[in-house]
Structures are given as C-alpha cells and as structure tokens.
Design a protein that fits this description.
With about 220 residues, the protein is of the alpha/beta class. It has a single domain, classed as Rossmann fold. The protein has 9 helices and 5 strands. The chain has a 5-stranded parallel sheet, with helices on both faces.
C-alpha cells in the first residue's frame, strides 16, 4: 500500500470524528466595539480568540468566534449591526463588551442602560433564553493610556465606573455572568507593553490576559 493510500485511509477514518467534533462544539458569538474587534491588533489576537484558546486547552469544545464588533461603536450602533447581521438562530455562548464609546462621546447613562437592556434581551434570545450561555464584560479604563494624557483622567475613571455599575446591575437582574477586566486594564498605566501602537487600545498581551480572565470565569459554568 502506498504512502498516499495510507494517508487517505487515515483521513477517512478520522473524518467522521472531526465532523462530529465540529457539530458538537459550542458556537460562540462575541458582540462589542473596538475592544472585542481587537482594534490596532490582528483580529485573532483579540480576547475572543484567546478565550477560545484557553477553553480548548481545558478540553472545552468551542468553535472559533463569530465577531460582530467595530471601532467607535456605541450600544446603538451595535444593536443596528446585530439586527442586520446574518446570524444563526441560536448560539451556545454569547459575550457582550460594550459602552466605552457611549462614555467617550458623553452619551447619557440612561440611554446606555436602555440600549444595554435591549442588547441583553437580544443575546438571551439568541441563547434560547438560557442566561448561563450569556456573559458581559466590563469596560476597560482607557484613562490610564497615553491617549488620555491631556484629558481629565479622574473623570474618565469615574464615568467608566458608573457605566460598569449599570452593566453589573443589569447583568445580575438578568442572571447573566458579569466579568470584570477593568482592574486588569489599569496595569496599562505601568506596563507599556499592554498598550497597542496607537497609544489607546490594548495590545495582544493585554487581550491574552483578558481572554484568560474570561475563560477562567466561564470554565465554572461550561
């Protein structure tokens, strides 16, 4: 039997297992803004991919993320994009990280809360109403980045804290997991390597840290 024949036979033996693994893996939808889209880095260096890598190493069968996110997106932008995106009817896991541009543009917390509730309801609908399949991630503190050096850093921190309080409160009401990455984001103040070349967004290293934080939290309920 030739080498190529052996390779083909081995492939055919394991193909059903591969297809079964693909069909039975957890589908993952990541919704958000520049942080979810890994702006200033390669998309595959973003936290959704690092989170998937972490879970795969823990023997959790999960698919490559489907990402609906973009730089400058507010809650209103994200909602419109989600409604127009060709999504599946259901997903096994849905992550939401949104709000920094609402704060950056000075939009009201009231509008943010209303939009956030709509997004959470949409996520829950895509999860067949199962709140254990939905999680929300806190807004990082961009006030510690060089980009904010001529701005009121204390105000940025306080406003982000207020928005994060809304996120946590609504997540608890919806029985959805809230994951804090804000504390870790403040390490960008003393570790320049955690900041991307644009002096604002997180680097691949920061995203990897977030992916591990998020993955560890999810591991308890997957």
């Amino acid at each position: 039997m030739s080498y190529h024949s052996i390779v083909i036979r081995v492939f055919l033996v394991f193909l059903p297992l591969f297809l079964w693994a693909q069909e039975n893996s957890i589908s993952f939808l990541a919704l958000g803004d520049s942080y979810t889209a890994a702006t200033s880095e390669k998309t595959e260096n973003g936290w959704p991919y690092h989170m998937v890598d972490y879970l795969l190493k823990k023997d959790i069968p999960i698919s490559e993320p489907v990402i609906i996110a973009g730089p400058g997106w507010t809650t209103t932008t994200l909602m419109a994009e989600v409604k127009s995106a060709p999504l599946k009817n259901t997903y096994g896991l849905i992550g939401l990280m949104i709000g920094v541009n609402n704060q950056f543009r000075g939009l009201s917390p009231e509008v943010f809360e209303t939009d956030l509730l709509d997004l959470l309801d949409t996520a829950l609908g895509l999860a067949n109403g199962d709140s254990t399949k939905v999680f929300v991630v806190s807004i990082p503190d961009w006030g510690v980045t060089p980009f904010a050096r001529f701005r009121d850093k204390n105000r940025i921190t306080q406003e982000i804290a207020a928005f994060n309080q809304i996120i946590q409160s609504q997540a608890e009401k919806k029985h959805v997991l809230f994951i804090d990455v804000t504390k870790s984001s403040r390490n960008m103040l003393v570790q320049p390597g955690l900041i991307a070349s644009d002096s604002l967004h997180p680097s691949a290293r920061m995203h990897k840290i977030w992916g591990k934080i998020i993955g560890k939290k999810l591991l308890k309920q997957l």
